[in-house]
Specification:
Layout: H1 7-15, E1 38-39, H2 50-66, H3 70-73, H4 83-93, E2 100-102, H5 106-117, E3 126-130, H6 135-147, H7 152-155, E4 156-159, H8 170-180, E5 184-190, H9 202-211, E6 215-219, H10 231-234, E7 238-241, E8 256-259, H11 302-318, H12 320-341, E9 346-347, E10 360-363, H13 370-380, E11 383-384, E12 386-388, E13 392-395, H14 404-420
Parallel strand pairs: 1-11, 3-4, 3-5, 5-6, 6-7
Antiparallel strand pairs: 2-8, 7-8, 9-10, 10-13, 12-13
Length: 422
């Protein structure tokens, strides 16, 4: 696409946008004086679908009017509530319906799946992750290693970028596994790296892991709802995600997980993972529900899950191919404007479209503390992004609710903040 660095041009793109009506389906944040904010932070917390309020109120009304009977007689009965989310999550993750389930939260799900899939034996005891992984993932992996009586200093391998680079190409993962794969039990990799915004080829990583006899697991926190994903066809063994970023389900929303249909291995059990037909007989033996549903531990948090129904309906209406097309254009426009309005910043997110999603991570050069001053000045102008120490601002235009005008205003505000920050 050919861009122009003007607000008029941005508005012309918005006028021609076939997805523009979806913005009206979200609550758009405003400042203390009621002014509209430029929200470019959906990679951290997605905006609220307006329909979410009604769905939550319906559940509250059913609770008030039906009490315990809501489990079976609510508008959306609570016992099979997770089934309302299955098809939408399967579509966005590229999975078969039986391979996904909405449950718990991201790190809880990661612990549950690591407990089943990480099986160190002999020299094959290592877990491979990326250097600078999201801290919760690293904590989970290190504690799983220690829980088995092993030393994380020896068994936790953090693959670093090449000298002078911020990102890790897939060939570096392949090369490491080709040389050291016999000592690796499990590879845990992000779909999109949270700090750099780099998107990875999950199929390529899964194939490299499997060639070396390793399990391939993925954290999709920053990729589900952001980039097209095909977990089943990629032959991933498992994946986990949260729903409060690109899936717009609200703070602390219910998480989700994927388990490939070929796996029937033993796992930690709870009564909601018991087959539905005999669950309430309360027998002593566990009979797992088929597929990923059998990995559930407890009944779903209804008030947390309801907003996700609203969001998944919007994804279904828009269609991921069209959302991806608009995402590429929005992020491309942001990149174009930064190159012209803020040429002294460094993009650490790959410029190749296939290697990124919505997010651009921007490194601010200069003396210590300048980046934070730039970020604070940006926020003061009503542009909401987020800050990562020591020098990085992350901005993400989301195709469901952001506009090209948002992108223009965000880039213009950043340029101004850079001019005035010593």
């Amino acid at each position: 696409m050919t861009y122009e660095p003007t607000l008029e041009f941005a508005r012309s793109l918005d006028a021609a946008d076939p997805l523009r009506a979806f913005r009206e389906q979200f609550a758009l944040p405003r400042g203390a004086r009621g002014e509209a904010l430029v929200y470019l932070c959906g990679h951290s917390l997605g905006l609220m679908p307006l329909a979410a309020r009604g769905l939550v109120m319906e559940e509250l009304d059913d609770w008030a009017q039906l009490a315990v009977l809501g489990h079976e007689h609510g508008r959306r009965p609570w016992i099979p509530y997770h089934e309302n989310l299955r098809d939408g999550l399967a579509a966005l993750s590229g999975a078969h319906g039986a391979e996904v389930v909405a449950m718990s939260s991201l790190t809880v799900n990661l612990h549950l799946l690591l407990a089943a899939f990480y099986r160190p034996s002999g020299e094959r005891r290592r877990i491979l992750i990326e250097a600078g992984a999201f801290s919760s993932d690293r904590h989970a992996v290190a504690s799983q290693i220690a829980w088995r009586g092993l030393d994380p200093e020896e068994a936790l391998i953090e693959l670093t970028p090449r000298a002078g680079r911020d990102t890790i190409p897939e060939e570096s993962i392949e090369a490491h596994l080709a040389e050291h794969g016999a000592k690796v039990a499990l590879v845990l990799w992000p779909g999109v790296q949270y700090r750099t915004g780099q998107a990875f080829d999950l199929g390529r990583i899964a194939r490299a892991a499997h060639r070396s006899g390793c399990v391939a697991g993925f954290d999709l926190a920053h990729s589900i709802g952001n980039v097209p994903t095909a977990l089943h066809d990629s032959d991933a063994d498992f994946a986990v995600w949260c729903s409060y970023k690109y899936l717009n389900a609200g703070p602390g929303a219910i998480g989700g997980c994927f388990v490939h249909e070929r796996h029937g291995l033993p796992h930690l059990a709870g009564w909601w993972g018991h087959e539905a037909a005999t669950r309430f007989r309360m027998g002593p033996e566990f009979h797992a529900a088929p597929g990923a549903a059998g990995w559930q531990i407890s009944n779903p948090p209804i008030l947390s899950a309801a907003p996700l129904i609203a969001s998944l309906a919007l994804f279904e209406q828009a269609g991921m191919p069209k959302l991806r097309q608009k995402s590429v254009a929005l992020t491309g426009y942001l990149e174009y404007l930064l190159d012209r309005l803020a040429p002294d910043v460094e993009l650490i997110t790959p410029r190749a479209v296939d290697s990124r999603g919505c997010q651009l991570s921007i490194r601010i050069a200069g003396p210590a503390g300048r980046g934070r001053r730039v970020f604070d000045a940006l926020t003061a102008q009503g542009v909401i992004g987020d800050w990562r120490e020591p020098d990085t601002i992350r901005l993400a235009p989301i195709p469901l609710y952001n506009t090209f005008a948002d992108v223009f205003r965000g880039a213009e505000a950043l340029a101004q903040a850079l001019r005035h920050a010593p």
